[in-house]
Amino acid sequence: MAKERRKAVLELLQRPANARCADCGAPDPDWASYTLGVFICLSCSGIHRNIPQVSKVKSVRLDTWDDAQVEFMTSRGNHVARAAFESKVPPFYYRPSASDCQLLREQWIRAKYERQEFTYPERQEPYSAGYREGFLWKRGRDNGQFLSRKFVLTEREGALKYFNRSDAKEPKAIMKIEHLNATFQPAKIGHPHGLQVTYLKDNSTRNIFVYHEDGKEMVDWFNALRAARFHYLQVAFPGASDADLVPKLSRNYLQEGYMEKTGPKQTEGFRKRWFTMDDRRLMYFKDPLDAFARGEVFIGSRESGYTVLDGLPPSTQGHHWPHGITIVTPERRFLLACETESEQRAWMEAFRKVVDRPMLPQEYAVEAHFKHKP
What positions does the domain Arf-GAP occupy (predicted)? Predict the structure, then answer.
């Protein structure tokens, strides 16, 4: 009988909706919450274990199942559970994938099943009200210390502001929603709730690094920023559908890591720098947590005269790392070197994805600005 019950549960995995984790979309889930009726991956099952009052998990293949549990799983499954627990997810709310950080996946699971935010929309107020204020730990630009700073997000003014003192009348910085991006960077920042916020200041990228000890608080800030971006874009592009706008709300970097670079004359030695590929902007920093980039390079499309070549010109000298990349732009060549072949392949793939993509009309304006930078 036990074998038959296990076989019956395994057969449920053949249903299309059950072929991927109900929470992060990872393929071939082999765990299940027998109190919620969903099939989940090993990683998400660990998060479910932390909310035992809501979810109890079993291995589909290794644990024993009783008749009532099999019957419940048969009547539910991922498709039915999604209709119950995700019926009112706001379009701007970030739905994490298997590659996202632990914090995003944990808070998505807790929001769905524990707090039931997508069943009762009034519980979404912390990130959907259009205004949010609170204190976050922010890394100092010069000394690298994290200090508590007051942040205010106001959709009416289209800005995120922060203040050096809670009683300060004027903000230290005003970040326009139009040019703002946020991405979780726990490893880089050294905190599991670390968020990197970037914005344009004088058309150059500025980074700030923040965290909050409460994971829910940090994810609520992240989704409040996405909501503000969503509402801004709805006004800016009145004919656009939600499906068009949602990919523009926040973006993860295409690639990050150390490479060596040399200067425009290619006569000075190569220096190790931290590179970040953010859409068509390739930025380099002395340190990953620098507030400002040492330089930015616009990477256009093949039709506009941009190409990426494997290796360096034969005459190149001074690089310590052996795996070269040459970026050709209409103005000059950029010579880069990676430490390992796998890093070189990853960077080449990221560059080629961008170069192979036709440029949008607004990207020509960005390119023109780069050409006229002092």
Answer: 7-126
What does DSSP assign to residue 238? T
Integer Cα distance of 43 and 29 in angstroms: 10
Which amino acid makes up residue 369? H
Q: What is the CATH number of the domain that holds 51?
A: 1.10.220.150
174-203 mean pLDDT? 94
Percentage of the residues of the chain whose pLDDT score is greater than 90:
82
The separation between CA 176 and the C-alpha centre of its own chain, rounded to angstroms, equals 19
Q: Distance of alpha carbon 157 from its chain centroid, rounded? A: 25
Mark whether 22 and 131 lie in a shared domain.
no
Q: Tens digits of per-residue pLDDT, 192-246? A: 999 999 998 887 899 999 999 999 999 999 999 999 999 999 999 999 999 999 9
Q: Specify the pTM.
A: 0.91
User: 322: domain CATH number?
Assistant: 2.30.29.30
Give the residue numbers spanning the domain of 156: 125-248
* 144 and 87 assigned to the same domain: no
Q: How confident is the model at residue 374 (pLDDT cuts 50, 70, 90)?
A: very low
Q: Are 204 and 244 in contact (CB under 8 A)?
A: no
> Is 212 in contact with 218 (CB distance < 8 Å)?
yes
C-alpha closest to that of 104 among 183, 198, 1:
183
Beta strands in 262-305 (DSSP E): 271-278, 281-285, 295-298
Instruction: From 121, 146, 178, give the residue that closes a domain.
Output: 121
Structurally, how many domains does the chain consist of? 3
Query: Among the three residues 191, 222, 248, which one is the final residue of a domain in this structure?
Result: 248
User: In sequence order, what DSSP letters do the residues of 125-161 get, joined into one string?
Assistant: HHHHSSEEEEEEEEE-TTT--EEEEEEEEETTTTEEE
